[in-house]
Amino acid sequence: MNLLESYINISKTNNVKINDINNINPKQFVNCIDSIPIICYEVNYIYTTVRGNKKNGNKYFLFNSFNPQINMKEKLDKYIEDFNKEHPNRKLLNVKFLNSKCLGYMTL
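The structure corresponding to this sequence follows.
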């Protein structure tokens, strides 16, 4: 899946064919430049490793929205859940959300 497909989240239910979008001339997208919002957050947290070591962690999240009401604790919990499923030998235990801050806004 290319970046365009993942951004617009194409599905069969909206009757759009992937090939049709891939065959669009890039010059036709010029009007879309500077209209894709991006917001970047930094999240700080602490956790315990499987071996019992205490660690500090930072994660950076990008969202295609300027919504300042994004719940970063929920996003971190989802990331930790996915990480623990993918890496059962390196689980992050006792994760505690410390804080989050917005690093900035931009448009593509």
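The chain has three helices and three strands.
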